[in-house]
Model the fold of this input.
Amino acid sequence: MTILIVDDSRIMRNIIKNTLTGHARYANCQYLEAPDGREAQRLIQSQAIDLLLLDWNMPMLNGLELVKRLRADAVQAKLPIIMITSESAKYSVIEAVKAGVNDYLIKPVSEKLLMEKLERLGL
Amino acid sequence: MNINHIEPFIEATVGVFRELFGLEPEYLNPYLVQKDDRNEWDISGIIGIGGDSKGVVVVSLSGQLAAALTAKLVGGPVQLDDPDIVDAVGEIVNIIAGNAKKGLEQYRLEISLPTIVKGPDHRIAWQQNVPIIGIPFKIPMGRFHLSIGLENIITG
Done:
């Protein structure tokens, strides 16, 4: 499985990656990283991604806009996306779900919740 | 001063330090920041607020505390000039501002990307027409400071 972690914080990307690799199920996945939505879109267009873990507030292209672009693309319409963001208001969650995210996790990342959401997605 | 509207920021700060660092910060009484006061801190992370209000959320720390917190996040020693410190302080203020929005859902607020100001006694260009509320925090590793200004929300 190839997992793309998109966050403008390198530390946050490492925390998410280390959280996942600490579980046998995800230890041998291939991990890709991007610091913004534009680089993420380039990676998604150039190789197969099985899971996108996506921050919202980022430079160049934010996470919400990337979700809208991906869902408008027939090839990526079903790519599993979990938004991982500090945006905690209900209206933000609703906006992200309407844009097409499969699930939503509020930072700081809870390992337990992340695992539950991955299990719910069958990953 | 509308204390109810400061509470989400205090709760978010306590929550972030609990979840990210396993620490329980104590906080002192909020006060009105005098904008001409010298800043006694070495690094500040700043988030601009837009939408239904205009304002700012700032977390200020000593260099030593910023390095110590960054070391906890990266799992190893961090020097005072390590670029990871900028990343960590930016993420801390981003999560505090984003988490505080949950307690202010009656307003549609937008948060900016974080910017960082560094240097001993650095100055922050506060907005002239927005009062700033300061909240000192204390953790076993040192002290830090939260500053909040939200036009027509925290102060009229």
About this structure: The first strand of chain A starts at residue 2 and ends at 6. Residues 2-120 of chain A form a domain with the Rossmann fold fold (CATH 3.40.50.2300). Chain A touches chain B at residues 8-12, 14-15, 57-59, 85-92, 106-108, 110 (CB under 8 Å). The CA atoms of residues 88 and 106 of chain A lie 6 Å apart.
